[in-house]
Please model this.
Amino acid sequence: MHIVVTFLIALLLSVPAAAQVQVQATPETSVKLEQWRSRWVLPVTIAGKPRRLLFDTAGGLTLLSRDTVTQAGCTPWGRLTGFRMFGDRGDTARCSEVAIELPGYRVAPPAVGLINLGKLNPLDAELDGLASLNMFDGKAITLDLASGELTIESEASLSHRVASMKALKVRLSREVQGLALAVLVEVPTSKGPVWMELDSGNGGTVLVGKHVAEFVGLDPNKQTKQRARFAIADGVEVQTADAFTPDIILDGNLGMPFLKNWIITLDLRRGLAWVAAAKRSAQQ
Model:
């Protein structure tokens, strides 16, 4: 009888402990993205109205349509200036403290800009803007762009998540007076490291700057697409038949042909990153 009672007490004590561990490792929130051709859309709420933002990890600034910011009570003012990867300058008026809501998460970035996606591409006309990483400044997020899931990690869930992942060397890029946020990953070459931007807004290509193309085995003078295969870390490779070597002001841009193959966790406070192979469905 004593043995049975002791066992039952031990069992009862273990259940809350297990539950506590599970609760402590729960992320802040997880959001299902919506498929948008070869890219993803982040559903949000702004000023009480559902909005759909193209999820673009290389966008730098979150950009909203004029209708969206007007409904949120902002009259755009001033100017923000940045440069796109082909070197062309972009100017936009700004809005401050526009609240953007996801289930379990609310953020009001210090600044958002304006964009008309339909003017850039008529197929994107129904979208309300561009969601960039500055929406998650100071947070840790995990991107599973094979299945379309974005997770905002807690400290506990971050520790649990990355324990089995491979660390990557990254830099946080902050342009537009420090208001923008993007992530560049180190790519080793025989001459030294180069840094390539993670870009979920690039649905179909990997771009390697003409000035570094030969160092990752590509032809800098080829005008058409070519096959690329180069390492980022042990067991982590870029492999695609859709690489180009344009004259850009970045070393490179890793779009969905790379990102869809990996689960990537980004600590946007500490400037750290980890990667694991994405799970592929039978259809993929």
